[in-house]
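[step 3/7] fold_predict: job queued, chain A
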Amino acid sequence: MQLLAVGLNHTTAPVSLREQLALAPEQLGDAVQAARGWFSRFNTRGEDEAALLSTCNRTEMYAASCAPDPLDASARFLADYHDLNFADLRPHLYMLPQHDAVRHAFRVASGLDSMVLGEAQILGQMKDAVRVADEAGGLGTYLHQLFQRSFAVAKEVRSTTEIGAHSVSMAAAAVRLSERIFDRVSEQNVLFIGAGEMIELCATHFAAHNPKSITIANRTLARGEALAARFNGSAIGLADLSERLAQFDVVIASTGSTLPLIGKGLVERAIKARRHRPMFMVDLAVPRDIEPEVGRLNDVFLYTVDDLAEVVRTGVESRQAAVAQAEAIIETRVQSFMHWIGDRAVVPVIRDMHESSEAMRLAELERARKLLAKGEDIETVLDALSKGLTAKFLHGPQQALHRAQGDERARLASLLPQLFRGRR
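[step 4/7] structure written:
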């Protein structure tokens, strides 16, 4: 059974490709089952494990498989499942075997592989992905252990280092970028499209600057109203965007929609109605909520998650000591996990040894009982029992030693005395 991680992230692929591999939360379970079905082509025993993690910055699969080339099988699954050409996708994928996959999982959970160094949101996203994979039947012994240890490592890193200290979040970065377009957020009308965790974070950051108004646009109006009430704002339905968009100076979008909610034509009409006053827009969704062509319009300043990378890297240098400390913790925990995997590899051997030894014991015990039933002396029977067990235990090693030649015989000759040396 081989552990692995295959996927792409913000460092290996642009948002235009990441959105093609993105999976909505409700799609993860089906994808996990499809992955296990894909592996069953190579392993009919059905022991393969799979889990998928998909966020705005990454889509990746963790697996444990007995396939002949599980890394290649996993990469081809991602291409096939998303109906993409494998040759086009392959250059953007990282394909990590065994300890590299373990290290990657630990780093992702700890926020070291995020666009925002040390951000905590990814840990919750990973826990959600693991829960879905478990419900879909994708977790077995290997992945269960991998993720439980990933969560433990993340907790240790965050509690013993300052990796998350002064972290510039995507929400804070959006505020900073808006201040490059408008002198004061307090003079702007701000629209948030969506009502999820990222929108909540953004609304919190913008609300701290007391904008002129805050409006939440959401498919479910009641949920939008509940969020808007926290910031003394108002809520509208997505259907109202066509009539209301021109009223807003700042637009932040982050929904789970698989198709864009705001097109070029809608924004063109809004800019015309605004008499070409500038509009600042941030699309934090993957797949994107705002058509990329919107960014080509005059008087529109459109940013995606990738465009925020320079801003969120601010302060990384000051946290390099914390990064080094976190990496040291992770490396130690990787070695511990690989030791556990090594122990797992010998479990079948130990089980076979126990089974064969038990068969020998029962055979000799039955022979002893028969001798006792015939009236044989108990000391004679016990002596025969002990000699019989010794002979059977030594028969296999002796035969292996006799059959071996050269270096193999020398290795066995040095190893066997250690195996059969009794406690003193």
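[step 5/7] annotate
The radius of gyration is 31 Å.
The CA atoms of residues 59 and 255 lie 17 Å apart.
exit 0
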